[in-house]
What we know:
Structural class: alpha/beta
Helix content: 40-55%
Shape: globular
CATH class: Alpha Beta
Number of helices: 12
Amino acid sequence: MADLSVIADSRVAVSGEGPPLVLVHGVGCDLTMWDDVMPALQARYRVIRYDTLGHGETPLPTGEVTLQTYADQLEAVRAGLGLERFALVGFSMGVPISQLFALKNSSKLAGLVLMNGVYDRTPEQVEAIRKRVRQARAQGTQILVDPAMDRWLSPEFRAARPDQEARIRKRMADNKPENFLTAYNIFAEADPWVVGKLGAIDCPTLVTTAQNDPGSVPAMSQAMADAIPGARLEIMPGLRHMPMIEGPNVVSDLLVNFLDGLPRDGVVWR
């Protein structure tokens, strides 16, 4: 059972014992998107999940909100929990958030996982996201849901597990439209914050995506891995953009294999 609390205005769930592991979700989701991989992770680690700004039960702050604001939220959660050193997993929008955090805080990271992230997108790829934001502002965010299901889950999985698709649809429907669109727009414009700068990340890093992810394509993960000194690349076969939903065993095994192999200092990460 997760211990739920509010830290720095963020809803935070902590479960399990062991080395600390922080999970950062993507746009339109909340901390529950990790539920299916939690049995394997909380059996080995102290797993910290939180709702990012404007998602779940974490409010969107007033004033200007940028990618740096999201990285600052991660730092506030870290400080609030007193984590000196931890492993970090970012998924989708959680990837640029985690990258930006790592650029200045590699010494705090025992390891870093960048999962199903975009990187160095073409102008056409960026414009496709901007177009979705414009359409949603004009017609409502629900017009984004059906196309998202096509990108996020395979047809076979959707046919076999309509309950899982319904769960994701409900989560998206529960988003406050302006909060969602603010986050989505930040995601669209994230590249300039991190592209060309990843060489400054100095911690063990795993970059991964799914073979059939139509947006966070393997070539982007390859480019990320090439940019980060010593980074390892793994492509998850046969999955799309939500591998922790469609292939939780694949994701659990991948994460445990990487995390268990991290250097341990015997005190904070042990």
